[in-house]
């Protein structure tokens, strides 16, 4: 099972999602390959935003080594599940995926059970509290996704 987390810049939400879900998968001994990417090329090869690094660290997860990359058409064939952080990402990814792979593209928060929101808000232009909220959403969805994969296997 290969899972790709995608946001706009690949320096805030999706690297946090990657780190948080990797920790959850390891805890449960799930065999998954995990990566993240951005729909834009704005932050290719950059480390995650320092606010994303500290929010993830507050959950015991180190994401400082991750580097930005842009999602591409080959990813849509290579991954089994492509999880978008918001509707904009979802639309960009469905276009990239085409009819053959569009079924793999979903909103990550569709797996969250303790929050009503279905989009992870872009925290880039906000403050630290935005990152704390993103973290809470991602932890909820990470647990829901891990439960889903365990139920299937
Ligand atoms: P991300 O956040 O999509 O969660 O990585 C953003 C990072 C950078 C920008 C926008 C959103 N930007 O405009 O550069």
Descriptive key words:
4 strands; 153 residues; single chain; Rossmann fold; 5 helices; binds 4-nitrophenyl phosphate; globular
So what's the CATH class? Answer: Alpha Beta
Q: Would you tell me the overall average pLDDT?
A: 98
Number of domains as seen in the coordinates: 1
* Helical residues, percent: 40-55%
Q: So how many helices?
A: 5
Give the DSSP E fraction (strand runs of 2 or more residues): 5-15%
Q: What is the overall silhouette?
A: globular
The named CATH superfamily: Response regulator
Alpha-carbon distance between the two ends: 11 Å
| Structural class assignment | alpha/beta
What name is given to the CATH topology?
Rossmann fold
The ligands found in this model are: 4-nitrophenyl phosphate
CATH hierarchy: architecture: 3-Layer(aba) Sandwich
Largest sheet report: 4 strands, parallel
What's the topology here?
Layout (H helix, E strand, L loop, with lengths): L1 E6 L5 H15 L5 E6 L11 H9 L14 H6 L2 E4 L2 H15 L3 E3 L20 H25 L1
Parallel strand pairs: 1-2, 1-3, 3-4
Helix pairs in contact: 1-2, 1-5, 2-5
Bound molecules: 4-nitrophenyl phosphate.
Your description of this structure?
The protein is an alpha/beta fold and 153 residues long. The protein has one domain: Rossmann fold, CATH 3.40.50.2300. The chain has five helices and four strands, in the order E-H-E-H-H-E-H-E-H. Strands 2-1-3-4 form a four-stranded parallel sheet, sandwiched between helices. Strand 1, helix 1 and strand 2 form a beta-alpha-beta unit. Helix 1 runs parallel beside helix 2 and helix 2 packs across helix 5. The termini are close together. The structure holds 4-nitrophenyl phosphate. 4-nitrophenyl phosphate binds next to loops.
């Amino acid at each position: 099972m290969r899972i790709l987390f995608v946001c706009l810049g690949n320096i805030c939400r999706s690297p946090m999602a990657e780190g948080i879900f990797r920790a959850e998968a390891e805890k449960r001994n799930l065999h998954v390959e995990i990566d993240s990417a951005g729909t834009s090329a704005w932050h290719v090869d950059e480390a995650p935003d320092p606010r994303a690094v500290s929010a993830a660290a507050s959950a015991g997860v180190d994401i400082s080594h991750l580097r930005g990359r842009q999602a591409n058409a080959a990813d849509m064939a290579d991954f089994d599940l492509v999880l978008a952080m918001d509707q904009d990402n979802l639309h960009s990814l469905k276009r990239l995926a085409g009819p053959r792979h569009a079924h793999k593209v979903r909103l990550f928060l569709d797996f969250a059970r303790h929050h009503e929101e279905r989009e992870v808000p872009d925290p880039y232009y906000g403050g630290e509290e935005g990152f704390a909220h993103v973290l809470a959403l991602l932890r909820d969805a990470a647990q829901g996704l891990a439960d889903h994969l365990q139920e299937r296997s």
